[in-house]
UniProtKB/TrEMBL annotation:
PANTHER family cross-referenced by the UniProt entry: DNA-BINDING TRANSCRIPTIONAL REGULATOR NTRC, TRANSCRIPTIONAL REGULATORY PROTEIN
Designated name of the protein: DNA-binding transcriptional regulator NtrC
SMART domains per the UniProt record, alphabetical: AAA (SM00382), REC (SM00448)
Residue intervals passing through the bilayer: none
Cited Pfam families: AAA_lid_14, HTH_8, Response_reg, Sigma54_activat
Keyword Transcription in annotation: yes
GO molecular function: ATP binding; sequence-specific DNA binding
GO BP term, pick one: phosphorelay signal transduction system
Primary location group: cytoplasm
Keywords, in A-Z order: Activator, ATP-binding, Cytoplasm, DNA-binding, Nitrogen fixation, Nucleotide-binding, Phosphoprotein, Repressor, Transcription, Transcription regulation, Two-component regulatory system
Domain Sigma-54 factor interaction: 147-376
Length: 454
């Protein structure tokens, strides 16, 4: 039975008695008031949350019902109000809806009608409160417990992340694939003043240039073949929030130029449009490439690099975070044990030693993959080396053997011949791999009498 408290205000004692008896029979707590001033005194002296709904007449002798509603909403904006009105005062009741009342009922009303309106009003308010609580929970800063680590080397990285999060500066996150760059980007957003707004991400390497442009900037109807409707881009959707751009080093130069304008001018033009739209966005970019080298070789704009690299956060690879392997492994063990409904509680010392001794070229992503596979294969409560595929990957020390001594000329010939074969005898591609010009490659082919299939 419900235990919500309902306040009823009406100048007719008979209505108050009837409604109190009806609502109490449904399990509600009820307080009644014969006038507006008495009601307002109760609301002023009470505390937020000590009433769940107000049932109020629109006409009262001591105060106008609309004035009462205005003061109630000023004192308790969140309190849902249902207005009771006679047939001749429907216009006034409609006015109360504009002022924030949930609904109105016309006297005389059947009990089913009033009970239904009250039930719906209370359910709506409960949904609003749950939504507000969820937003508050989602908006909580990402704390140390949310990012798994034990090592001092990653502690420095995490502390730097929290330190720079409060600023408005664009940030460049650097690190190998699988080191957790998006997680760090999320920590930056949710510990920043923008945490109430959206955090969106895009992988620049996963999309073609045309699709990436459309996803970022949006497009208007008819901008290109297949654009049957106008679509907002991520820049518009992320306005006021944070946009995480993963693999920024794979973005083409034309898109880089457009992104630079967004950062500098804080506006953009959707594909096919003519008018710019404003964009108040914080950019967090990430890459596993050496952007300084990309700039030097002309594949990345220098001006964009400096705009993004106001602050950079380098993420250490997992092989340099050996102390973090055990807590990360146990975290993934718990995650996939619950998901797969298996009773796996730990890792044997031998299996743990194997995990710690491995170099993890795929970093945390590889560790998660290994632990998921191990949980699938596990038959006991403890994971053993048998369930871990990494023992097959341990590097073997090559046996000593006699080395055939050959000339530098023979090595060069074999290397060129092997490169040509691997590229399907594509000369331009082979020359690029070898680091020589096409003209030099043609000369080497002739010099070594290499056979090129027709």
């Amino acid at each position: 039975m419900p235990q919500e408290k309902i306040l009823i205000c009406d100048d007719e004692q008979g209505i108050l008695t009837y409604l109190k008896k009806l609502l109490q029979s449904q399990g509600y707590q009820v307080e009644t008031f014969l006038g507006g001033r008495e009601l307002l005194r109760r609301v002023e002296e009470g505390e937020t949350g000590d009433a769940d709904l107000l049932l109020q007449d629109v006409r009262m002798p001591d105060m106008d019902g609309i004035s009462v509603l205005k003061k109630v909403k000023r004192l308790r904006a969140e309190l849902p109000v249902v207005i009771m009105t006679a047939f001749g005062t429907i216009d006034a009741a409609v006015e109360t809806i504009k002022l924030g009342a949930y609904d109105y009922v016309t006297k005389p009303f059947p009990k089913e009608k009033i009970l239904s309106v009250i039930k719906n009003a209370l359910e709506k308010e409960q949904l609003i409160q749950e939504n507000r609580a969820l937003k508050k929970e989602l908006g909580k800063p990402i704390l140390q417990e949310s990012i798994i680590f034990r090592s001092s080397v990653f502690r420095e990285t995490f502390e730097l992340t929290l330190q720079v999060a409060a600023s408005e500066a664009n940030i460049l996150v650097l690190g190998e694939s699988g080191t957790g760059k998006e997680l760090i980007a999320g920590a930056i957003h949710y510990n920043s003043p923008r945490k109430e707004r959206r955090f969106l991400s895009i992988n620049c390497a996963a999309l073609t240039e045309t699709l990436l442009e459309s996803q970022l900037f949006g497009h208007v109807r008819g901008a290109f073949t297949g654009a049957i409707s106008t679509q907002k881009g991520l820049l518009e959707e992320a306005d006021g929030g944070t946009l995480f751009m993963d693999e920024i080093g794979d973005m083409s130069l034309p898109i880089q130029a457009k992104l630079l304008r967004v950062i500098q001018e804080r506006d953009f033009i959707p594909v096919g449009a003519t008018r710019p739209k404003s964009a108040n966005i914080r950019f967090v970019a990430a890459t596993n490439k050496n952007l300084e080298r990309e700039v030097a070789e002309g594949r990345f704009r220098e001006d964009l690099y400096y705009r993004l690299n106001v602050i950079n956060i380098p993420l250490p690879p997992l092989r340099d975070r050996k102390d973090d392997i055990e807590p990360l492994a146990l975290h993934f063990l718990k995650k996939y044990s619950v998901r797969m409904k298996k009773e796996v509680t730990g890792v044997t010392p031998e299996a743990l030693a194997l995990l710690i001794g491995y170099d993890w070229p795929g970093n945390i992503r590889e560790l998660e993959n290994v632990m998921e596979r191990a949980i699938i294969l596990a038959r006991n409560e403890q994971l053993t080396p048998k369930e871990l595929p990494i023992w097959r990957k341990q590097p073997e020390v090559p046996a000593k053997r006699d080395v055939e001594l050959v000339s530098l000329e023979n090595i060069e010939r074999e290397h060129i011949e092997r490169t040509l074969a691997n590229t399907g005898y594509h000369k331009s591609r082979s020359a690029e791999i070898l680091g020589i010009s096409r003209k030099t490659l043609d000369r080497k082919i002739a010099e070594y009498s290499l056979h090129i299939p027709a």
